[in-house]
Design a protein that fits this description.
It is found in: Membrane. GO terms for molecular function: chloride channel activity. It is a multi-pass membrane protein. With 575 residues, the chain is mostly helical. The protein has one domain. 70% of the residues lie in helices and 2% in strands. A hairpin with a 2-residue loop joins β1 and β2. The longest helix has 47 residues. The chain starts with 23 loop residues before the first helix and ends with a helix.
């Protein structure tokens, strides 16, 4: 249980996997609390000087906010720990031999919960991909002839069961990690932010002050706020869906039709590349609109706002990533074209994204260093010689921050990393029967992605501000949604393969596919009841800790009662 920390009772508090008393997120919050809490408590203003600049530090004014407003302090951010950073480079980012094994506890200790959970998820997802990748390679290498229509449904059933089990076993892995890191009790989801009080806490105080002890009016006000927030979220979601259908859908269908008409493969690749760059512009606009809409929602905390942003922006990306593939698969029913589109999407988009996310930070950093050095050379009046930075802080300040491409007010760089993984998962799952080899491409990409993301965080970017999160949040719901979609799309692909004449007759084979779809949907929603989300040892530890906490509280209560009685007895004797 959570108690106020006291040095005298230090042995009673749980320690981190690395032996430290506080997690990185807790330490960073303490640092910020200390430096942002310096306030002028004197009776008069204080004159501060720096070089030739002079300004007043007024009574009751916070020092760091004053320094930031005067542009003396440009930014507050955590620095890399060079010893730990170099160790992680050797054991993680540059360690290619064991391609999916990662030092998750060390990542948690250095970066915090949210980033550690992302890499744990990516590592487990990549290991689990080895089975469908091997199955897909076998289907690609061997010609089964007339048995192909029998082998593909077996492959389809296998990967659906694989995805269902992966989703459920990830929940078990997530709970096991939290237990290992001693994170077992609800903690505010907005840790690590500076936004202050969220709507629920601030409005609760206002309502309590306004209505006092009138519980009926207080309850009515809370219900009004709750339903108003839900209506606002429904309105915003409707706006996004309507915009996608009316604006983005015609654009995507036009691109898919032009791609179908063009005969040259080189022109198709060029068109796809131009399209991928152009669509980013439209997505950025949609993301900015989503952020503005979220400001009018009464979300409970910052993480809820971030989840709302994830759902809205993923809707935009879902349309731009898959509608063209649906067009080729279900309308034109052209298997060869569909495979070419999938190969280009998997190779061109993912290779480009990996290149951009790893080269752009380096180019930005190099350009900033060049500008600073050029400025220092002009100030010194020298055009030759190497200019050194004054400190490591100045050098790290020039590095780009780990921020999201959309909605950086609510999300960090994990938004883009999770989005990339989710879009890949949807692509390989929803069209598995058309291109089984896609799982092998995804496996190779993810092995590279783990090391590239690690190198990016350790060498190319500033140390990210730690953010607390116990799960992957809205992304898990998106993965489960994609599993349901993949059941429907693959059944449609199998019907298309079986119904060669295009008559769509309900024959025994087609009927079997429809029955299989319904059975798989039942398995999807019933498997969660079969496999518990929490391992038995985690549940046993939680019960044991709850009993210890209850025992400790009972002892403290008895001691306090005994102390009160002893004090009362002494007072009675003295009287």
């Amino acid at each position: 249980m959570d108690l106020e920390f006291e040095w005298e009772e230090v042995d009673a508090f749980e320690r981190q996997p690395d032996g430290s008393l506080f997690s990185w997120c807790e330490r960073f919050r303490c640092y910020r609390h200390i430096i942002y809490g310096i306030i002028n408590k004197s009776q008069s203003s204080v004159t501060l000087r720096l070089d030739s600049k002079e300004f007043k530090w007024e009574v009751g004014e916070y020092l760091l906010q004053k320094l930031e407003s005067e542009r003396i302090v440009k930014e507050v951010f955590p620095l890399h720990d060079e010893i730990k950073r170099k160790k992680l480079l050797q054991t993680w980012a540059l360690h290619w031999w064991d391609f999916t094994n990662q030092p998750i506890d060390e990542i948690y200790s250095y970066f915090g919960t949210k980033i550690a959970i992302y890499f744990a998820f990516l590592g487990m997802y990549t290991r689990w991909l080895l089975f469908p990748a091997a199955f897909g390679l076998i289907l690609h290498m061997f010609d089964f002839g007339s048995l192909q229509l029998l082998v593909l449904p077996i492959f389809f059933i296998s990967i659906i069961l694989w995805a269902i089990m992966f989703s459920q076993f990830w929940k078990r892995k997530n709970n096991a990690l939290l237990a290992r890191w001693k994170i077992r009790y609800p903690i505010r989801a907005d840790l690590g932010y500076r936004q202050g009080m969220e709507w629920n806490s601030s409005q609760s105080i206002e309502i309590a002050k306004k209505w006092g002890t009138d519980k009926t009016k207080e309850r009515e006000m809370f219900q009004r706020i709750e339903w108003f927030g839900r209506l606002m979220r429904f309105r915003n979601d409707a706006i996004i869906i309507f915009s996608i259908i009316c604006l983005q859908l015609p654009f995507e269908l036009a691109y898919a039709h032009i791609y179908e008409v063009i005969g040259s493969d080189i022109m198709k690749i060029g068109l796809t590349t131009i399209y991928l760059f152009a669509i980013q512009f439209f997505t950025q606009i949609g993301g900015k609109i989503s952020v503005k809409l979220i400001k009018y929602e009464n979300n409970e905390n910052t993480e809820k706002k971030a989840d709302s942003l994830v759902y809205k922006v993923f809707g935009l990306y879902f349309m731009q990533s898959y509608i063209g593939v649906f067009y080729h698969a279900l309308l034109h029913r052209n298997f060869s074209t569909l495979r070419k589109v999938l190969i280009q999407r998997l190779l061109v988009s993912q290779v480009l994204e990996n290149l951009l996310e790893n080269t752009l930070p380096y180019l930005k950093y190099s350009y900033k260093k060049y500008r600073v050095r050029s400025k220092k050379k002009r100030e010194k009046g020298s055009s030759t010689g190497k200019i050194q930075f004054a400190s490591r802080v100045e050098k790290e300040y020039l590095k780009p921050s780990y921020s999201a491409s959309i909605g950086m007010e609510l999300e960090d760089g994990l938004f883009d990393d999770f989005l990339e993984v989710a879009l890949q998962f949807g692509m390989i799952m929803m069209f598995a029967c058309a291109f089984p080899l896609a799982f092998a491409f995804a496996t190779l990409n993810n092995i590279t992605e783990i090391r590239a993301d690690a190198l990016k965080l350790l060498a190319m970017l500033r140390r990210p501000t730690p953010r607390f999160s116990t799960t992957i949040g809205a992304w898990l719901n998106i993965f489960q949604f994609l599993v349901v979609m993949s059941i429907c799309t693959n059944c449609a692909l199998l019907v298309w393969l079986y119904d060669e004449e295009g008559k769509w007759k309900i024959e025994p084979g087609l009927a079997a596919i429809l029955v299989m779809e319904h059975v798989l949907l039942l398995i999807k929603f019933g498997f969660s009841r079969f496999v518990p989300e929490e391992p038995a040892w985690v549940k046993a530890d939680r019960v044991k800790d709850a009993a210890k906490a209850e025992n400790m509280c009972s002892k403290q209560l008895l001691r306090s009662i005994s102390g009160e009685r002893a004090t009362f007895g002494e007072l009675k004797k003295s009287q």
